[in-house]
TrEMBL record, chain A:
EC number: 2.2.1.6
Similarity section: Belongs to the acetolactate synthase small subunit family.
Gene: ilvH
Its biological purpose: Catalyzes the conversion of 2 pyruvate molecules into acetolactate in the first common step of the biosynthetic pathway of the branched-amino acids such as leucine, isoleucine, and valine.
Listed SUPFAM superfamilies: ACT-like
Domain ACT: start-end pairs: 4-78
Catalytic activity: 2 pyruvate + H(+) = (2S)-2-acetolactate + CO2
Cellular-component GO terms for this entry: cytosol
Pfam families referenced in this protein's UniProt entry, alphabetically: ACT_AHAS_ss (PF22629), ALS_ss_C (PF10369)
Official protein name in the record: Acetolactate synthase small subunit
Associated pathway: Amino-acid biosynthesis; L-valine biosynthesis; L-valine from pyruvate: step 1/4; Amino-acid biosynthesis; L-isoleucine biosynthesis; L-isoleucine from 2-oxobutanoate: step 1/4
Source organism phylogeny: Bacteria, Pseudomonadati, Pseudomonadota, Gammaproteobacteria, Oceanospirillales
Residue ranges crossing the lipid bilayer per the database entry: none
GO molecular function, one term: acetolactate synthase activity
TrEMBL record, chain B:
E.C. number(s) listed in UniProt: 2.2.1.6
Thiamine pyrophosphate enzyme central domain boundaries: 203-337
Protein name: Acetolactate synthase
Pathway: Amino-acid biosynthesis; L-valine biosynthesis; L-valine from pyruvate: step 1/4; Amino-acid biosynthesis; L-isoleucine biosynthesis; L-isoleucine from 2-oxobutanoate: step 1/4
Length: 163, 580
């Protein structure tokens, strides 16, 4: 099963390396990973998407919790939650393609954020499914470059991952 | 230089480091100097509270610190330079990590501004050590040194213990840059709060399950020794009359000569221990981690047993074997609470069932009971050597082992009645551990009998330490079960490779006795079983120098029982010709 795990950790040099090292060392899979500062400058928040059997996921969360710099973590997929990812795609857009790409972009509520006579750069946000669907829809066009942020997530309702 | 009490003393980074160690109560540090730590070594020279032991190879320093920790329960401290000093310490750090041993390793580092430039003797010790430490930290500001030291000890010794590395760039220790020194009393960390007790509801469930068992066994590991819970374990087992097996790391936690002790379990466990485990209906695992050398094939492990698992590390629970009742907590308070709850419980163990269980266990004991071939009185049997050692030292020695057949014979035939006396590298299986380990113990327990049980292969991995023994007057006894082979390798080659001895024979061995004598020690060679006991007694009576006891043992001996690969715990080879 796919899991989204969000981790609050001390904003210290080397903390990220420990998380990444843990996954490499124990052979756990990481589909995406994103890390950024939070409102509290002493903390950073890391969100990772991983796949595995329940037993493996249990080990992953236990080992993450064991890392000295990890303050708190939550497996967002255990409850109702919102996930978002931002993707930027640069596509070749000439001739008839130009209109076609723009239409697809509109359908997905994407935004064209940079234009040249031969290219569009489109920004799309959504959950992983939507972002993937957009990529599929563009399959007729020539993709020049794709940049994805990886998933960030937050629990619905009152629950919050904070100190 | 007196100062008013209110004003903190001004010290350099190097001085603060050593003073912090003193204030932490550290008596010995083990190490080796080099460029990046010279300021620190100068600070050592200027005081006499913290004593430094100069080894001959940094690996030995780590094993000394590690073994001191295993014997005393307190973190050992290592100091090495950057680059090769740090990399030489790696094997010892990994050894401690695998066995959850508290240790603080201080490594020098190149100047901060040179980090990342491939400077002379620069290695990324933070990166190198990361997978084999409980935690590591790098000093960025000399003011942080005292709190970093406090934190390192706290992390190393609390929760599930382990090694902590502090990497210190040289410019953090400049002799002329002074900072106010204050050693913190305690440390509080929001991100690290080890559990202090177990969940009472879980403990109740466990007690109910245990009291209703008809064929129970207690399987206890190194966690009971680290958690200082030997007394509680013994009380629990004896109160309920339940059989006890110990892992390789757990030997001594339960008295080895007691009737209820069925021996070590696992790959080279006793027949009765493995049979009792396999046929149990309830396994109470305490501070043990269901290592693959214990369980054999996990799919066939204890088919009828409910598993209760007590461990301080949640990640050890349900890792390889699913626990029916997990209890996360330090073993001592958990066992205490179990004892209280048993006292109050209305349930009583089914004594008839338990009697039947003991009858069965005694039958298994009869069947094997640790026997070995004794038909040829000319051949020196390694098992007999260990039994004789146990007799001569009255089972009270600190036995520090290397890795190989001799290690297994020592584990099987030396009967440990006390915790912290059996000191061996279980998780990593580090050849070369034995001698420095024995030195670390002897230094802190000068009047104790400390024996390094080794093989002619293992001893050569750190034999240079004979020199350190001489310098510090450490009278360890080296009992070398010299079979002329990398015996454990040879055994596997006998069993799995039709006796093709690919590189398991060591030609050109030195005359170990003469070698020891060249360092100013004593050497005793034992070639015939008749002279064994007398010469061992003679060796143990020496108190002022190392005695290298070179015992020529039967090279063809194998360690049995041995679990059949991929089988259940009960599938064992019992001798060269029998299997279960
Ligand atoms: C550093 C290291 N290298 C290799 C091994 C693999 N190994 C395990 S036991 C053994 C043989 C040990 O020989 P010896 O010390 O003579 O002991 P014996 O088995 O003969 O009693 C070897 C090579 C190891 N455990 N550690
Ligand atoms: Mg040998």
């Amino acid at each position: 099963m796919r899991h989204i795990i969000s981790v609050l950790m001390e904003n210290e040099a080397g903390a990220l390396a420990r998380v990444v090292g843990l996954f490499a060392q124990r052979g756990y899979n990481i589909e995406s990973l994103n890390v950024a500062p939070t409102d509290d400058e002493t903390l950073s928040r890391l969100t990772l998407v991983t796949k595995g059997e329940d037993r493996v996921i249990e080990q992953i969360t236990k080992h993450l919790n064991k890392l000295i710099e990890v303050v708190k973590l939550v497996d967002l997929t255990e409850g109702s939650h919102i996930e978002r990812e931002l993707m930027m795609v640069k596509v070749r857009a000439t001739g008839a393609q130009r209109e076609e790409v723009k239409r697809t972009c509109d359908i997905f509520r994407g935004q064209i954020i940079d234009v040249t006579p031969t290219t569009y750069t489109i920004q799309v946000t959504g959950n992983e499914e939507k972002v993937n669907a957009f990529m599929d829809a563009l399959s007729g066009a020539t993709l020049m470059e794709v940049a994805r942020t990886g998933v960030a997530g937050i629990a619905r309702g009152d629950k919050s991952l904070s100190l | 230089m007196t100062q008013p009490a209110s004003e903190p003393e001004m010290l350099s980074g190097g001085e603060m480091l050593i003073r912090s160690l003193k204030d932490q109560g550290v008596e010995y540090i083990y190490g080796y100097p080099g460029g990046a730590v010279l300021h620190i070594y100068d600070a050592i020279h200027k005081q006499s509270d913290v004593k430094h032991i100069l080894v001959r190879h940094e690996q030995a320093a780590t094993h000394m610190a590690d073994a001191y920790a295993r014997a005393s329960g307190k973190a050992g401290v290592v100091l090495v330079t950057s680059g090769p000093g740090a990399t030489n310490a790696i094997t010892g750090i990994a050894t401690a990590y695998m066995d959850s041993i508290p240790m603080v390793v201080i490594t020098g580092q190149v100047m901060s501004h040179l980090i990342g430039d491939d400077a002379f003797q620069e290695t990324d010790m933070m990166g190198l050590s990361r997978p084999i430490v409980k935690h590591n930290m790098s000093i960025r500001d000399p003011n942080d040194i005292p709190s970093a030291v406090k934190k390192a000890f706290y992390i190393a010794e609390s929760g599930r213990p382990g090694p902590v590395v502090i990497d210190i760039p040289k410019d953090m220790t400049m002799p002329n840059e002074k900072y106010p020194y204050e050693y913190p009393d305690r440390i509080k960390m929001r991100s690290y709060n080890p559990v202090k007790k177990g969940h009472s509801g879980q403990i109740r469930k466990a007690v109910n399950m245990l009291l209703q068992a008809k064929r129970p066994i207690i399987y206890s590991g190194g966690g009971v020794i680290l958690g200082k819970a030997s007394k509680e374990l013994t009380q629990l087992a004896q109160q309920l009359n339940v059989p006890v097996t110990n892992t390789l790391m757990g030997l001594g936690a339960y008295p080895g000569t007691d009737r209820q002790f069925v021996g070590m379990l696992g790959m080279h466990g006793s027949y009765e221990a493995n049979m009792t485990m396999h046929n149990a209906d309830c396994v109470l695992a305490i501070g043990a981690r269901f290592d693959d050398r214990v369980t054999n094939n996990t799919g066939k492990f204890c088919p009828e047993a409910n598993i209760i698992h007590i461990d301080i590390d949640p990640a050890s629970i349900s890792k390889t074997i699913q626990a029916d009742i997990p209890i996360v907590g330090p073993v001592k308070p958990v066992l205490k609470e179990m004892l209280e709850q048993i006292e109050q419980s209305k349930l009583k163990m089914d004594q008839d069932a338990l009697n039947l269980w003991w009858e069965q266990i005694d039958e298994w004991r009869q069947r094997h009971g640790g026997r070995y071939r004794t038909d040829d009185s000319e051949r020196m049997k390694p098992q007999h050597v260990i039994e004789t050692l146990c007799k001569v030292t009255k089972g009270n020695a600190y036995v520090c082992s290397d890795v190989g057949q001799h290690q297994m014979f020592a584990a099987q035939y030396y009967k440990f009645n006390h915790p912290n006396r059996w000191i061996n590298s279980g998780g990593l299986g580090t050849m070369g551990f034995g001698l420095p380990a024995a030195m670390g113990v002897q230094l802190s327990y000068p009047d104790a009998d400390v024996v390094c049980v080794t093989g002619e292969g293992s001893i050569q991995m750190n034999i240079q330490e004979l020199s350190t023994c001489r310098q510090y007057g450490l009278p360890v006894k080296i009992l070398c079960l010299n079979n002329g082979y990398l015996g454990m390798v040879r055994q596997w080659q006998d069993m799995n490779y039709e006796s093709r001895y690919s590189h398991s024979y060591m030609d050109s061995l030195p005359d170990f006795c003469a070698l020891a004598e060249s360092y100013g020690h004593m050497g005793i060679r034992i070639e015939h079983p008749d002279e064994l006991e007398g010469k061992l007694e003679e060796a143990m009576a020496v108190t002022d120098k190392v005695v290298f006891i070179d015992v020529l043992v039967d090279p063809e001996e194998h360690v049995y029982p041995m679990q059949v690969p991929n089988g259940a715990m009960s599938d064992m080879f019992l001798s060269k010709t029998e299997r279960t």
